[in-house]
Amino acid sequence: MRFLISLVLFFSIASGQSLEEAARELARKIHVAIPSGTAIALTTRTLATNQAEARRLRPIMEKSLRGLGARFENPAGAEVAVTISENAAGPLLAVEIRRGEETTAVFARYRRDTERAAEPPAMTIERRLLLRQPEQILDAASAGEVLLVLEPDRVVIHRRGAARQALAIPAILPRPRDLRGQLLLNGAGFTAHVPGLKCAGTTDGGPLACEPGDHEWPLGNGARATFVPNRNYFDGALVLDAAPSRKVEPFYSAVAGPQWILTGLDGQARIYNRDWEPLGTVSGTGSEIAGIEGRCGSYVLTTRNETFIQALESIDGRLDPAAAPLDLAAPVTALSSAAVAITHDRTAGVYAAYQLTLACSR
């Protein structure tokens, strides 16, 4: 019979330090406790009432750990759970590190700056126009001086200082009225999906290799799903690289990460942990959703009120606003995993693709 080995380490850290100082100190302790090169799955949550501190914590932990060489990948060799708690002595950070059957716990107290903790996150959503055209855009992706645009019948390669190249996509009929597509860049190669067809090509403009059929579309983190034929949503049958396949409710789009978020046909966003156990259901998100990472941390983008993009943070099975919404001034028709938003101005008859990023001041 095997037994769980639990190693608990208490570090005496002065309670006069700030949240940022305590988080950076804990990151160093985590770095020492985990062998070099081990991939990490990081989660943060709060048992305290101060949600602003929870929003500040994850970006600090991620930045500090990355600065020490940590890798955030799936599957992970270590699970790191950071919890904000409090008792009569004041606020407390508790870290639990799991590696196989070994568990290490690290704790740190910090002082609470009441005025600063009450501030909203100093973060904004920024946009950069990639392309505007009358032809329908399903998806777009850029890398360096190359911009790929997926249209219903072709992939167009735009390269700075060169004429654009158009690679034809075979027509698959019938098509859904609300046609969707996915474009994924992988170095000099790319994969394009439209319902009933999968195509592969290279950015140098060689011919496309296309295969008809109900192919699985990548969702991220080793998960794939299939579109319902002639419709615009996934059937809910998930194929997972690191776990048995499973069935969930049909959904429009998904975000992969320590927590999975799927937007359902009923207008509800369903949140699952990495083991696909339900954490909560959230109303009010749009059908399009995508993850975004940067200096500010890891967040979720979703559509709102047709023309707006909202940044959200997933905390304890909730989706909390993390920045003021961005108005793109035209209905958003798609939001890709690369944080590219597609809009369609029906009055002007113009489609546009925008690269979205997050900007933060701390």
If you had to describe this structure to a student in words, what would you say it looks like?
- The protein has 362 residues and is mainly β.
- The chain is built from three helices and 30 strands.
- It has two domains: 5-117, Double Stranded RNA Binding Domain; 123-360, YVTN repeat-like/Quinoprotein amine dehydrogenase (Methylamine Dehydrogenase, Chain H, 7 Propeller).
- Helices cover 10% and strands 51% of the residues.
- The longest helix is centred in the first third of the chain and has 17 residues, at 51-67.
- It starts with a strand and ends with a strand.
- Mean pLDDT is 85; it is low at 1-14 and 115-120.
Q: Order of strands across the widest beta sheet?
A: 1-5-4-3-2
The third-level CATH topology of the largest domain is Methylamine Dehydrogenase, Chain H
Output the CATH homologous superfamily of the largest domain: YVTN repeat-like/Quinoprotein amine dehydrogenase
Alpha-beta classification = mainly beta
The end-to-end distance, rounded to whole angstroms, is 49 Å
Number of strands: 30
Which percent range describes the beta-strand content? Answer: over 45%
Number of helices: 3
Shape: globular
Mean pLDDT: 85
> Sheet with the most strands?
5 strands, mixed
Low-confidence stretches: 1-14, 115-120
C-alpha-based Rg, rounded: 22 Å
Give the domain tally: 2
Query: Class of the largest domain in CATH?
Result: Mainly Beta
CATH architecture of the largest domain: 7 Propeller
Helix content: under 10%
